Amino acid sequence: MTIPILSTKTHIPPIRENILSRSGVLAYLDTKAGAKLTLVSAPAGYGKTTLLSQWTQHAKNAIAWVSLDESDNDLSRFLTYLVAALQETNPSLGETSQDVLLSSPQIQVKSVLIPLLNDIQNTISQNIFLVLDDYHVIDEQVVHQAVDFLLEYAPTQLHIVIASRSTPPLALSKLRARRQMSELRAEDL
């Protein structure tokens, strides 16, 4: 079964005119976004999406973006959009993963993510930033497990940026202890 891709979910949201430029926070993102995970967590209205859209405008690296919604709690749909977003940075990424997603109604996370991570490791020399916007809508444990797997085994070229209204239930303490994570919270925004 093929899941149709809504292309607006994998495009960086446009920036409105007359927005406040937060040069200090943008500079922080520039210096700290090389971590495995950058978490931008604050309540609604703090400008998380706008900030990340601004940041991507001057980013020198490839940006893959997924605007999440409640339907992305379905593992197959989540992984389909994740692969589609990464393919926008390089169309050859994730071909095997895409085949796995199309071939079976019962998806095993590792059968999709291992070939995807291997593709990134073996074919990409530049950094890729994968932005998962509105992560707070995800409540399915299997999707959190997929993101934890990505974070645990991501090659050095892959950096994940999560924007959320709440702290996601991921293995954050491990990333903090390893100094593989940077954070922006409400007080920073």
Tell me, briefly, the overall form. Answer: globular
* Average pLDDT level: 92
Give the ordered list of helices and strands.
HEHEHHHEHEHE
What is the radius of gyration? 16 Å
Annotation, overall tally of beta strands? 5
What's the end-to-end separation, in Å?
42 Å
Q: Biggest sheet, strands in spatial order?
A: 2-3-4-1-5
Please outline the helices and strands.
Elements: H1 23-32, E1 37-41, H2 48-57, E2 62-67, H3 75-89, H4 95-103, H5 109-123, E3 128-133, H6 141-153, E4 158-164, H7 172-177, E5 181-185
Parallel strand pairs: 1-4, 1-5, 2-3, 3-4
Structural commentary:
The protein has 189 residues and is an alpha/beta fold. Helix content is 41%, strand content 15%. The protein contains seven helices and five strands. It has a five-stranded parallel sheet with strand order 2-3-4-1-5. Helix 4 packs antiparallel against helix 5. It starts with 22 loop residues before the first helix and ends with a strand. 35% of the residues are buried. The model has no long low-confidence stretch (mean pLDDT 92).
Give a short synopsis of this structure.
The chain is an alpha/beta fold and 189 residues long. It has helices spanning 23-32, 48-57, 75-89, 95-103, 109-123, 141-153, 172-177; strands at residues 37-41, 62-67, 128-133, 158-164, 181-185.
